[in-house]
Specification:
The protein is globular, with a radius of gyration of 19 Å. By secondary structure, the chain is mainly beta. It contains 1 helix and 11 strands, in the order ββββββαβββββ. The protein has a 4-stranded antiparallel sheet, with no helix packed on it. The chain has a single domain, classed as Deoxyuridine triphosphatase (dUTPase) (Deoxyuridine 5'-Triphosphate Nucleotidohydrolase, Chain A, Distorted Sandwich).
Length: about 150
């Protein structure tokens, strides 16, 4: 079952394919770089890469921007604020913050697959303040409390 997402193609995306799933079993759609000229991300640096489009995500959903596992493993390149979120009311160009965690420069060329986006339902919290939270098995244990 597909959920309709409106997509506005910007001039610098012309000639590139729109986001699409690589296979029928893919959860997300691949996002491509729409930059020109090519961009080099030096080791330890981050760069904002344009995709060349805007989207209108339906209310009750978000687009989660995630790294591509191949880029992470082979090149040490990741989406810095992973997962990034495109909210339903966001209307600017979708851009991806790529970070190079490797020791080698990484080249981003127009048309490279740089990230993936997964459309996910959003549950909106309704907060209720109380005097004390109910106990749990974990209790007040914080980070690292449950062991290795």
């Amino acid at each position: 079952m597909g959920i309709e997402v409106l997509l506005e193609v910007l001039e610098h995306m012309r000639g590139l394919p729109i986001p699409a799933r690589a296979t029928n079993g893919s959860s997300g759609v691949d996002l491509m770089a729409a930059n020109y000229p090519p961009v080099v991300i030096d080791p330890g640096k981050r760069v904002l890469i344009p995709t060349g489009f805007k989207v209108s995500i339906p209310p009750g959903y978000e687009w989660q921007i995630r790294p591509r596992s191949g880029n992470a493993l082979k090149h040490g390149v990741t989406v810095l604020n992973s997962p990034g979120t495109i909210d339903s009311d966001y209307r600017s160009e979708v851009q991806i913050i790529l970070a190079n965690l490797s020791d080698e420069p990484f080249l981003v060329e127009r048309g490279d697959r740089i990230a993936q986006a997964v459309l996910s339902p959003v549950a909106y919290p309704v907060f209720k303040t109380i005097e004390k939270l109910p106990d749990s098995e974990r209790g007040d244990g914080g980070f690292g409390h449950s062991g290795k």
